[in-house]
Amino acid sequence: MKLLKIAFVAGLAVASALPLVGAATAADYKDEYKISTVVPAPFPWGLAAERWAELVGERTDGRIKMKVYPGAQLVSGDQTKEFTAMRRGIIDMAVGSTINWSPQVNELNLFALPFLMPDYEAIDALTQGPVGEQLFEILKDKGVQPLAWAENGFREVSNSKHPIRTPADLDGLKIRVVGSPLFNDTFSALGANPTQMSWADAKPALTTGAVDGQENPLSVFSIAKVYEVGQTNLTLWHYVADPLILAVNQDVWDSFAPEDQEIVREAAVEAGAYGVEIARKGLTGGDDSAVEEVRAVGVEVVELTTEQRQAFVDATRGVYAEWAEKIGADLVKSAEESIANR
Ligand code: X2X
Q1: Which atom number of ligand 1 is nearest to the Cα of residue 202?
Q2: Which domain holds residue 292?
Q3: What's the pTM?
Q4: Looking at the 3D structure of the chain, how many domains does it have?
């Protein structure tokens, strides 16, 4: 009797919801959609993910409820499994770095080709042009719906030993890296001793001195207070930059009514643009306050001259050539053209 009553009440609830949201969608929607990120707000990508969830919540009157799960917790901290988990539906959505998805999507290694992108316009030339479109097609073929780009940023190298001005200064330094073997190859070519580890393990390893250095955008360096664990030498060499991608598992995407897909996509584009704006704050447009902030806490910041930077470019040309083949010669050529014409 009690069971019957519950069934009856549940039936009533569904019936009363139907006229509001439409028969096809009501049954399929989840109570909550999980968005995976590696770092939370106030890092730019946590902020972008939160903005995405907020906008969708507002515009669907709460019908689509998205919640941010930072710290790569949905993949037990192993950020290089995020793409696979999203493809399989363990994760519904993600704001993820191209670095973390490159083990499964080889073409995303493009952004980690050493010294491919000289400036922010070059990043935009890729993400907002034909290369970006092509990469989104590749992601779709792999069963994920990509919607928009955001940004982690240009990755600068820090260490606890001494200022890095020449490749020789990297000699023998143990550097924490993440992602694909491309990072190992780049740092090995520079004479360093790279070691792969997740972000969750990085700070403890820096604290104990198990590694001497790391590479991350200035926003991560500042917000995570990496300088507090002995990382007092920072070289602004702009060697690679990792964009972020806002994406949705394909089955989840297909379950959304077309008008809801439009809302989710537009919100992703707006949240992504906001994320880019935050990521570049204090680093662009004549404002270098982000650099001044880390100087103010005692970090020795090295800005390379053109000639000094060129020495790093020269030392990594072999890695670039080898990985250009692995990534796809045509895609790399198209990227180089987009950058040349920016
Ligand atoms: O682990 C990192 O270095 C981070 C936070 O930048 C990424 O997830 C790529």
Answers
A1: 1
A2: 31-340
A3: 0.92
A4: 1
